[in-house]
Amino acid sequence: MKILRLFSECNDENFNFELKKVQKKYFFLLFLLLITACGSVRKHNERQKICIPPEKLKQDVDFAYSKIKEMHPHLFWYISKQDLDRKFDSLKNTIDKPLTPLQFYFKLQPVVSDIREGHLSLRIPSKRITKKEIKSLENKKGMFSRFDYYIQDDRLFISGNKDSVENIKPGTEILSIDHTPVSYYIKRYRKLISTDGFNTTFKPYFLKDLFFSYYVAEKGFQNQASIKTVYEGKTKTYQLTRESKSGDDLKKEKENKKRTDEKKINDYVALSDSYNRNFKFLDKDSTIAYIQVKSFSGVYSGKFYKNAFEKIKETHSSYLIIDVRNNYGGSLEEIHKLYSYLSPEPYILIKPSEVNSATTPLKTNYFRKSNVLEYTFKTLTYPAFFFAQTFSTYKKDGKVYYKIKADKRSKPDKNAFRGKIFVLINGASFSASSILTSKLKNDKRATLVGEETGGANDGTVAGFYSYQTLPNSMIDLPIGLVFVQPDITPTNTKKGVVPDIAVQETMEDIIHKRDPQLDWILNEIKKEKTAK
């Protein structure tokens, strides 16, 4: 808006002259950006094929470890410095020949994952695709993404096939892809996944969601694949292809892109044709309210919770079920807002958030991934950013903390729910989901049902990141900078949030659309109603 105000102060003649100059510069920069982008993709892909000498790779190992030690708070929470030093030294001893960036990644990432911080992970290097290839893929359906998956031990199952691709039945096990056993990939990829502490529930969920992301990073985008399967004892091989989208598919996609008020408030995701947030009543008399949040995206969340809890208050609901299963986290601000509707008394959501130094907030790569125009704009606004971040920390008892609104005493919302709360959790409840549920459990505000969360009970390191690039392999390394803890009495278990009532969900439940965890809650409510 400042740019518009500056222009409006010019007279028409000067304004038109200045506008023409800006237009010429804009089109020149756009042309320059296009050429640079094409060259950048080509250069990046060529670099992925080059084998890097061992001494250069060892430099990258030292660089990665030095940056992690410099920036990551509470680095030795789950592993001792002695053990981690030994692991990095041992890694360097195994590097005795040139490796491509991808080969090097498969050596370094398992060591990073041994730190056991779920947010700390290298970005897998992979081939980039050109704008022409992107355009081509836009008009084609996914090849593996059209299925839902379930992982059990070293086995991969198809749990859903909404498009009835090749009439493959849910429950079918994929034995191999292009003649390579699936078990090989699962064992290979499992080592890459970082978890919070000694949690055991997170990896199967995260691996099923990322399996084919890893696979495509290794193999590239393919137009066909052969999968060998078994279903009810019968083995069969299918040839999967990347089909073209039909006219109806393209029409539906176009329609889905329209942003209605409902889509905004419920945070519609076109890719999955679903909403991140859902609210409804589970009974005719509206005594049981149900809120499902698949991601704390922060988008229009204030309006969503305001509407939902106004309706809950109007109907005098006695029970509230909050479903954060398969919610990998997101906005701290959103869970702070949600908690204001769940606590009838003033509360503090998180403890003061620790950082390694007063300069930590300035290490967030302000100019990262900026094109020419964005870089110019950010240059103008950098002084404001620098000033704000410089005064965003404070020292207390020899430690440095980052100022966050959620660590202050907060009042409950006027429509705060005062009835009984149940929360559904599983191994894919991570990060912000774990902070929320840990706080609810500690305050005895809710009964948690399901399985241990994937995120740690006592806190996590994330908040915002410093994006480092290893100098020789050019692999990206995002490092979380803020130690965020719920305002609770620590359990010191080094694991996730443990449910009050443990109820497991099986693949058969998923296939047949049964929900034993929700059913347990509904049965418990029925018992309470009957007993009254």
Automatic annotation (TrEMBL):
GO terms for biological process: proteolysis; signal transduction. Residues 233-504 form the Tail specific protease domain. GO terms for cellular component: outer membrane-bounded periplasmic space. It holds the Pfam family Peptidase_S41. It comes from the Bacteria. GO terms for molecular function: endopeptidase activity; serine-type peptidase activity. InterPro entries: ClpP/crotonase-like_dom_sf, Tail-specific_protease. This is Peptidase S41. It comes from Chryseobacterium cheonjiense.
